[in-house]
């Protein structure tokens, strides 16, 4: 089964829910970055949250960037998503080995430490929208919940989970975001609050073999959910030689001449897919001639 996000409304359209299965996407991130389990969880939860937020973007050129910076050994991460729900990301330190939490879970908060979460939405306007919050838990889902309440004034419930297998590949990954509109009445709000106290974790539900439809039923099944659509999710890096060459040109003529005088070659690295682009002496001379 390929990754997708299920979008639905419930309680007479006074609430909306997004349920995501992102196992292949997060496993692709692991394949690129060879992250240790706790960083796979940190990156995977953020990729899942960003995928859902990407699906909320209106137009094709809109881009969402989530940046986490912390003082823990993992240092942080960057993830981007667009409205076609193509996501990509990387961690600042992919290999972090810290003890599990007392409950046996990966200590994502311990790996990230204290810091900030910044969400940038480039919506094609003059200035991008920027929202920043302090990390309230460092476990990502709670931080996104806080972000939605603080920066977007939307009451939300966020659950994100990644289960790493013994061979470090991704066994399960997914999540959901539930948001209430101002039209939601008290009964819906308290019903949802009760549900969130007792609901199983996303990874547990996925482990039991549930798909997004069944998770939808577990969460808001008794509030007349209406499925809107299903959107495929994929890990996609849009880097190519032309793009990288532009970045090389942007360092300036003098810098390029310096490279020719010293290293005689340049290698540019894409953080998102770990690909290297080599530019030989000849390549750099050609670039300079064309300028
Ligand atoms: Zn790339």
Please provide a written account of the structure:
β3 (63-70) and β4 (76-82) form a beta hairpin. α1 (23-33) packs across α2. With 291 residues, the protein is α+β, with helices and mostly antiparallel strands. It contains ten helices and 13 strands. The protein folds into two domains: 4-235, Hsp33 domain (3-Layer(bab) Sandwich), CATH 3.55.30.10; 241-290, Alpha-Beta Complex (CBS domain Like). It has a six-stranded mixed beta sheet with strand order 7-6-3-4-5-11, covered by helices on one side. It binds zinc ion (ZN).
Notable characteristics:
single chain, alpha+beta, Hsp33 domain, CBS domain Like, 2 domains, 6-stranded mixed beta sheet, 5-stranded antiparallel beta sheet, 10 helices, 35% helix
What can be said about this structure in brief?
By secondary structure, the protein is α+β, with helices and mostly antiparallel strands. It is about 35% helix and about 30% strand.
Query: In one word, what is the shape?
Result: globular
Low-confidence blocks of residues? none
* CATH homology superfamily of the largest domain: Hsp33 domain
Average residue-wise pLDDT: 96
Ligand set: zinc ion
**What structural class results from the helix and strand content?**
alpha+beta
As a percent range, the share of strand residues is 25-35%
List the helices and strands and how they pair.
Elements: E1 4-10, E2 15-21, H1 23-33, H2 37-55, E3 63-70, E4 76-82, E5 86-91, H3 108-112, E6 115-122, E7 129-134, H4 141-151, E8 156-164, E9 170-180, H5 186-198, H6 202-207, H7 212-220, E10 226-232, E11 234-235, H8 241-249, H9 253-261, E12 266-270, E13 275-279, H10 281-290
Parallel strand pairs: 5-11
Antiparallel strand pairs: 1-2, 1-10, 2-9, 3-4, 3-6, 4-5, 6-7, 8-9, 12-13
Helix pairs in contact: 1-2, 9-10
């Amino acid at each position: 089964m390929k990754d997708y996000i299920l979008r639905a409304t419930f309680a007479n359209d006074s609430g909306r829910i997004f349920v995501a299965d992102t196992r292949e996407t997060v496993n692709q991130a692991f394949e690129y970055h060879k992250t240790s389990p706790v960083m796979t969880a940190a990156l995977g939860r953020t990729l899942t949250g960003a995928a859902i937020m990407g699906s909320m973007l209106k137009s094709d050129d809109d881009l969402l960037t989530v940046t986490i910076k912390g003082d823990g050994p993992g240092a942080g991460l960057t993830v981007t998503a667009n409205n076609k729900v193509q996501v990509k990301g990387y961690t600042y330190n992919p290999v972090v080995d810290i003890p599990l939490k007392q409950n046996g879970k990966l200590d994502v908060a311990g790996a990230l430490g204290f810091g900030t979460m910044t969400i940038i939405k480039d919506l094609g306007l003059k200035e991008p929208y920027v929202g920043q919050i302090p990390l309230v838990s460092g476990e990502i889902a709670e931080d996104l919940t806080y972000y939605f309440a603080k920066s977007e004034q939307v009451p939300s419930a966020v659950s994100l989970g990644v289960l790493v297998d013994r061979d470090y590949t991704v066994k399960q990954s997914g999540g959901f975001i539930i948001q209430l509109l101002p039209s939601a009445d008290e009964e819906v709000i308290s019903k949802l609050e009760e549900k969130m106290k007792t609901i199983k974790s996303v990874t547990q539900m996925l482990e039991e073999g549930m798909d997004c439809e069944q998770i939808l039923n577990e969460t808001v099944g008794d509030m007349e959910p209406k499925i809107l659509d299903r959107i495929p999710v994929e890990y996609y890096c849009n880097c190519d030689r032309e793009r990288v060459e532009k970045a090389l040109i942007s360092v300036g003529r003098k810098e390029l001449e310096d490279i020719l005088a010293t290293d005689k070659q340049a290698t540019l690295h894409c953080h998102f897919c770990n690909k290297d682009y080599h530019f030989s002496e000849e390549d750099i001379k050609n670039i300079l001639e064309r300028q």
